Structure formats: structure tokens, C-alpha cells
Amino acid sequence: MEMDKARQPVATVTGLFRSTFEGLEPLTRDTPLTLEEVRQCPIFFELELDPDLEDADIIIDVCYDNLTPIWLKDRERGTDIPRGVQFWPYWFEIPYYRLMRDIDGRRVYPSAPGSHRVRIRTARRKIGQWGNVRDFSPANHGYTSPVFEITIEPGEDDF
Q1: Residue 148 vs residue 132, higher pLDDT
Q2: How many whole angstroms separate alpha carbon 43 and alpha carbon 12?
Q3: Is residue 158 part of a domain?
């Protein structure tokens, strides 16, 4: 049991959400984003924080369509994330480039209409890890979300 506690993720991702006037709405492949939403609104996700690791600062990466992971700002407990909360929202923006290359050199159209995949990684930030290699291993309380699939619907000004 102690071994499981030592490798428990510092934060897990509960889902992706879109911003609406009524609040946050779950985002799935069956609820497509418009091109306008892609350009103007971030994609939200919710972190479920481990109460046993309340003092741990968190590092977060977003892997979008197999592109090089996007490093999000490190979250510090006590200043960026209040202590004692169980869930915390965060966001990322879909890359607005027309054409990019993924980590294998293939062409990717990140904001083009169609289906796109997102994975989010979280881990505890080690002391002195600012700007260095990020460690998402289970030994560092790392976590990789399941693949979330989102859809962007075609619009009039489709490119």
C-alpha cells in the first residue's frame, strides 16, 4: 500500500471544457468547436488534486495532435493554486498556425476542421526544476491523461 501512495499522481485530468455564457460545457467529439471559438477561446480542463500532496508544486504539459508538448506555466501551491482545494481549472490555446510538423516530421494542421487529439501530463515540480528537463515519471507523481478527442467544424472562412 505504501508503494502505491509513493507513486500516486499529484493531479489527474477530469475532462476538457469549452467556455460558454452559461459557464463551462464538457467538450467531446460530439460537441464540435467552431473556427471562431478556436481563434478566440481557450480550451479549459479540470485538475483533480491529490490532497496528500497538498504542498507539491505542479508542472503541466499539453500534447496536441502529436506535436512537441506545450509547456504550461508551473503552478505553485499556496499562490497559484490555493491549499485545500480538490479541483482546479486551467486552460490552453489551440495552436493557431496553419501548418506545423509533429515530432515525427509529418504535416499537422492544428486549427483545421476535423478531429484532433489532446493528452495532458502532470507531475510534481522538483526543487530546482525551473526551466530544466521535466520529469513526468510515476516516481515523480506523474500522470498522463487518456486521449481526449475534440472536433473543429468547418466554417465559411475555412482555409
Answers
A1: 148
A2: 16
A3: no
